[in-house]
Amino acid sequence: MSLFKKITLLVIIFITSINIQAQQSKIEIEGILHDASGMTIPYAAVSIPTKNIGTTSTEDGKFYLALKQSNLQDFLVISSMGFKTYKIKVEDYIKQKNKKIVLEDALTALKTVQIIETKEFISNALKQAKNTFISESHQLNLIYRRTNVEEDVSKFFVEHHMSMVYKGPKSHLSRMQVNQARKSADYRIVKNPQWNHAAVYMIDLNPLKNYYTPLKKMDWKKIGDTTYDGEDVIIFEGTEENVNKVGKIMTTVLYIGYETNNIYKVESSVGKCIYQYVKNSEGKLYLSYHKREYGGQNKISAFDQKLLKLKSPHVKHAYRHEAIVLGIITDKKQFTAKGFEEFDKDISKIELPYNPDFWSNLSLPPDSGFYKKIKRELESNYGVPLETQFKFVN
Q1: Strand bridging mode 26-34 / 100-102
Q2: Cα(130)–Cα(119) distance, rounded to whole angstroms?
Q3: Taking every pair of C-alpha atoms in the chain, what is the biggest distance, in angstroms?
Q4: Phi, psi of 350 (to 5 degrees)
């Protein structure tokens, strides 16, 4: 055997050995969450808090985590509103044949507890946000999805794997970087670009930033109570009596821990927003999931009106968004997001080569109902599989 062939053989053996070791060190766990009645549990926090590893269950209760051999002795922790926190050692969970997890209902003691005046309770929670949320710079690695919808059918889809750095819900983004991108074919009639990347709006439009109206000035009332991660949680609804910037009465719902003042979840009628938070290894909160939708109408040509078979020369249009946080980094030396130049670009204007190997090897949670609906609609437009669209469009 020649020297060249020997070297080539050694390189192949070395690379193969590395790949085998990498595969052996990777552990994939998945499951589905149910309540006692058999209903699936959406948007539950599924994590290993001590290692800042986590995900969120989909609308149909499914979850997925990519772990390492070193995580076998760690505890998998599952928390959801209204249920007892479920804990199990990763190693023990893997050994279970049945990957269906049934969460137990948790009873709240707040029925017999008197709280301080509602506005004061809200004010205290907002004041404590600097302590209850991670308020130092941290990097979130996430999947960001936006689809353009016309007449309630998806016409264009963009997905980014990205990293962003900020200091919690009351701050602005300081750094942002799109690592990978893919787009569908573009079937839109309305092509209104957004002034900034959609992730910028996700941060800036958070009700906790008081963009539309200061939360302290809203009229608040208690509308319910539940539990989360072993703590009683009070659900408050705030309403703005005067018409706001978007021309509608705005409603905000906060889920606040009775003892900790933790704001675990935020909902808003503006954009049908959901912001869900999970605890890190120190018990501080960070964003784990986000969803929103903004819509309106756009005037179209007579030709397009006839093409869409509409009675009016206006087409209903909306942006639908979903963000799934895949991981968090708190050590500034390990931050990878470096840029600012992508802030002021519409998400569809970010041009990166499509890397199918990256997307096929990325450890993503199970497809959400949001994504399944988009995929089904985009493929029905012209009967072209979404993967084929990614390949040829990008």
Answers
A1: parallel
A2: 19
A3: 85
A4: -75, 115
Q: Please, are residues 325 and 134 in contact by the beta-carbon 8 Å criterion? A: no
Pairwise CA distance, residues 385 & 377, whole Å: 10
Q: How far is CA 209 from CA 169, 213, 266, 305, in A?
A: 7, 9, 12, 40
What letter does residue 222 receive in the DSSP assignment? E
Query: What angle (nearest 5°) sits at the alpha carbon of residue 364, between those of residues 353 and 202?
Result: 75
Q: Which of 189, 382, 156, 150 is nearest to 301 (CA)?
A: 189
Q: What radius of gyration do the chain's Cα atoms show?
A: 23
Q: What is the pLDDT of residues 155-168, one digit of tens each?
A: 999 999 999 999 99
**Residue (of 46, 32, 343, 306) closest to 189 by Cα position:** 306
Cα–chain center distance at 99 = 23
Within 13 Å and on the Cβ side, how many CA atoms surround 28? 9
pLDDT digits (tens, 9 = 90+) for 4-62: 444 444 444 444 444 444 444 778 888 999 999 989 999 898 988 888 888 888 888 99
Nearest to 255 by CA among 226, 285, 235, 225: 235
Class of residue 51 by CB neighbours under 10 A (exposed 0-12, middle 13-18, buried 19+): middle
- Are 275 and 287 spatial neighbours (Cβ–Cβ below 8 Å)? yes
Pairing of strands 263-268, 273-279: antiparallel
Question: 3-state class of 299 per DSSP?
Answer: strand
Per the rule left: phi > 0, alpha: psi between -120 and 50, beta: everything else, 247 is left
The residue among 230, 234, 226 whose CA lies nearest residue 253 is: 234
pTM of the model: 0.87
Query: What distance lies between CA 177 and its chain's CA centroid?
Result: 17
Q: Residue 113's CB: how many other CB atoms inside 10 A?
A: 11
User: What whole-number distance in Å separates Cα of residue 47 and Cα of residue 325?
Assistant: 12
